[in-house]
Amino acid sequence: MELLKLLLKVVPLSLASLVAMGVEAEASPSAVIEWNNVILEAIRVTHPGPPMVARMLAVSHTCMYDAWAAYDADAIGTRLGSALRRPEGERTDANKTKAINYAAYRAAVDLFPSEKPVFDAKMASLGYNPISGTNDMATPEGIGNVACKAVLDFRHADGSNQLGDLAPGAYSDYTGYQPVNTPDSIIDPNHWQPLRVSNGHGGTVNQKFIAPHWGNVVPFALKSLQQYKIKAPSLAGSMGYLEQAREILSYSATLTDVQKVIAEYWADGPNSELPPGHWSLFAQFVSERDGYNVDKDAKLFFAMNNALFDASVWTWGIKRQYDYVRPVSAIHYLFNGQTVKAWGGAYQGTRDVLGGSWNPYQASTVVTPPFAEYVSGHSTYSASAAEVLKLFTGSDVFGYGVTIGKGTSRVEPGSVPAADILLSWATFTDASDEAGISRRYGGIHFRDGDMEGRRVGHLIGSEAWKKAKKLFAPHAGRDNDGST
């Protein structure tokens, strides 16, 4: 019941749909699920950027997986291989659970130091001593501590600048990125423009590109940023540049309640778990739907979150490479001094607006995310996660639904939607495709940024799954599927 309560709180789930699917909540979710929820809540509280969230989840679940692998007959860890392997008599669920708890705790404290009291309380509630730093590998707490330390030691030097040792401030840029444009001037219409947006308290703040160095981070299975060939985005002066802007205006002028709901549901803006965490919630549903145990949970969340992590590295590397303009800036540039038909703002419906002041269907504190357009993170993240979920389960079947209540919009509260709307996805691919197009409905991304992100995201997910399978069952001739 704990998982269902979480889902109902975070994404208003259609309980009738869930019951109709024959899904029943387990009384006690695995340690992997419990700590996934703890990490997601820490993300909601601390508000890191999207690529940092992907890494946080990947590091956490890698620590959990490596600790779990010590108690499996075949699986090997990412850092220490089979060196932590415990004898058959110790391979109990109790030992796996305890090792996972200690590994998850070490990762959580390292990644979210401000939330340590919360993590201490979690360990105490489980009956564990959080200050036990033992490295005795004859104990599950020792396995958890040693396994996670190896992962953290490696990740502290992965180029993310988590510790602020490459430049002051955790995860701060150390590459010297400077935007070509300013909040007041579009100097080059092919490049990203930082916007001046509402801070929600009567003032404004100038956007700063989140993590322009992220393409330098050591990935999981990704070999290089050039591993996947993509076409370059359309340049100003070309018909493609104009047509992609016109498409966004067309969406804006004809937005339905369903499209508005889709744009908001997938937005995952401030105070949420962001796209990588969103897919972790979906994975929890799959675990519950299919009755997974701690073994399958350890492998599923490890594989999927490392695919999402690779998606973050590739996407942000491409964003930095092209530093491409967002729709809001391109439309301001193209249609300045002209009148266009579009969404006119909250509660204004479709009307004639000045092209130079057009805004996308977003909250005033967001307007457009603070990083370059090409390619879409939502599209790449979602496709990579969907691919792993499909490959792990052996089917693209999802069967999940979310009811969005009447008037619950954050952009037009009380008005949108006019009646309850059920969003549902028969397949993982359906869900990931909707996540991609949601950004076009919301005026955040162009078609090419969406479609190229989707295409490469599936490839990234497939490569991450291949590497994960080799870790799950490294022996030649074994059927390396996700089963135990």
UniProtKB/TrEMBL annotation:
CDD domains attached to this UniProt entry: PAP2_haloperoxidase
Organism: Sulfurirhabdus autotrophica
Keywords assigned: Signal
Protein origin, superkingdom: Bacteria
Domain DUF6851: 61-194
GO-annotated molecular function: peroxidase activity
UniProt-recorded name of the protein: PAP2 superfamily protein
Keyword flag Signal: yes
Vanadium-dependent haloperoxidase NapH1-like second helical-bundle domain mapped to chain residues: 300-449
Signal sequence interval, chain numbering: 1-22
Coiled-coil regions listed: none
Classification of source organism: Bacteria, Pseudomonadati, Pseudomonadota, Betaproteobacteria, Nitrosomonadales
UniProt cross-references to InterPro entries, sorted A to Z: Br/Cl_peroxidase_C, DUF6851, NapH1-like_2nd, PAP2/HPO_sf, V-haloperoxidase
